What we know:
The structure holds two protein chains of two kinds. By secondary structure, chain A is α/β, with parallel strands linked by helices. Chain A is built from nine helices and ten strands. Chain A has helices at residues 2-8, 52-60, 82-88, 105-109, 124-139, 157-170, 187-202, 214-220, 243-256; strands at residues 12-23, 26-37, 41-45, 67-72, 75-77, 90-94, 175-179, 206-210, 223-228, 231-237. Chain B is mainly alpha-helical. Chain B has a single domain, classed as ABC transporter involved in vitamin B12 uptake, BtuC, CATH 1.10.3470. Helices cover 78% and strands 2% of the residues of chain B. In chain B, strand 2 and strand 3 form a beta hairpin. The two termini of chain B are 25 Å apart. The chains are: A alpha/beta, B mainly alpha. The interface between A and B is medium-sized, with 28 and 26 residues.
Amino acid sequence: xxxxxxxxxxxxxxxxxxxxxxxxxxxxxxxxxxxxxxxxxxxxxxxxxxxxxxxxxxxxxxxxxxxxxxxxxxxxxxxxxxxxxxxxxxxxxxxxxxxxxxxxxxxxxxxxxxxxxxxxxxxxxxxxxxxxxxxxxxxxxxxxxxxxxxxxxxxxxxxxxxxxxxxxxxxxxxxxxxxxxxxxxxxxxxxxxxxxxxxxxxxxxxxxxxxxxxxxxxxxxxxxxxxxxxxxxxxxxxxxxxxxxxxxxxxxxxxxxxxxxxx
Amino acid sequence: xxxxxxxxxxxxxxxxxxxxxxxxxxxxxxxxxxxxxxxxxxxxxxxxxxxxxxxxxxxxxxxxxxxxxxxxxxxxxxxxxxxxxxxxxxxxxxxxxxxxxxxxxxxxxxxxxxxxxxxxxxxxxxxxxxxxxxxxxxxxxxxxxxxxxxxxxxxxxxxxxxxxxxxxxxxxxxxxxxxxxxxxxxxxxxxxxxxxxxxxxxxxxxxxxxxxxxxxxxxxxxxxxxxxxxxxxxxxxxxxxxxxxxxxxxxxxxxxxxxxxxxxxxxxxxxxxxxxxxxxxxxxxxxxxxxxxxxxxxxxxxxxxxxxxxxxxxxxxxxxxxxxx
Lengths: 263, 325
């Protein structure tokens, strides 16, 4: 029932209509339609090359679609850049690639949206202070070895992911896009990440979540959207399908290239 | 002592400290080997006179190298902008403003072309700038037909001449003061301005920088444009010092300038660098020739020792870097 509630009642946050994206002659996305409600976690699943990453990069402004419409908070938008999507309230958390290794944490957290004076010079003190707050309050780093002046190079995968999450919470975004957030993490770190995703719902934030591990996806998402070769081939609410059934669907898809969706 | 070595400042400034020690050792060798030269002022005046010409470019080139890019065309940009400056200055009967604006604009335009070739066409910078290196030098030869331009009549004794190259108190060449001021300014931009910050991120990891909302292409283009501007400026300084344009002007700058950047500790892989290091690199590279001759070695040793210095310095940095990871 919770699923139905979301589907019919909750306010819509993002809607994609008829999105096409080509790279040269390769059609990566073909007529993709997708919507996300407020407070909903949607998992994108599909094989490598299904177009998951391209789709989220369209949403975050890294790529621009060849055709199709994007609506955010019920307004049609034309997302031209990452900084624009951030301003609208879309925040991406990319595994590993989210941070630059040789730069300090306080610079990484604010990269691309530095706190500056009117001449464009960084307010280092303020940036360090805010970064300190993010480390302690949003991420819960207690280790003395990690400070705002640490470079990213020495951090573990989970710590890097923590910084990326902390950053997305701090900037108060409405939609958080998670690209393979558990890849390469230890079991303990993975659990933290999944808890974080579940926690988003309490704050009425939405998320799009890509992960290869169906067990992770099943535990954290409300709805599953299955992509195959650039097309949406199936969509299930969590209460419509068990984990085993979902796995079975993916195997079916892999073997026959088709998926059976019951009406 | 242990505390000192483990302090935060030391940890974060290993490169700067290494390069400073190398420079101090080098000057100590000069001092002990040729006290009759190095305890007197004239050698230092000569250094201060000659170093800024390539030093200004080295400081500016540090931005491009930090991006993980390289610009080999600046010697020819110095050539074409100096030619422009000389031609305009003589044909307008010494109108400095017009000459200055045209020469620096042309320098920025040349930088813009480099930047567009690298970002929009996608040519690796080392290849693109070899092309423009030949192009601008070729244009200098075509226009000048191999002859120089004397600007003595329209430049000597003017206030601009005084501003650029006069000796303060009859001792300190003005260009050295400019060099220090520019170094400080560029250091400030490099570390504390949004642009300098973006230079580091793009050089560190282009894809990540893009995803963090940094306009990678624009950052690269601006970096090449500012190098074009400072190449033109260095050319103008040289013109006021020599009061003459010659068609090969700038062509000797390539190796000394880039050597200063690399000896200074800026990583060729991008993402990490130091303006202060480049400044010290300029002091080292700029002093080698006279230093070696003063030590009583023949001029044939200059390149040999130059090569030794560069190789030793970059080896030390590579080792420091390897220990970190």
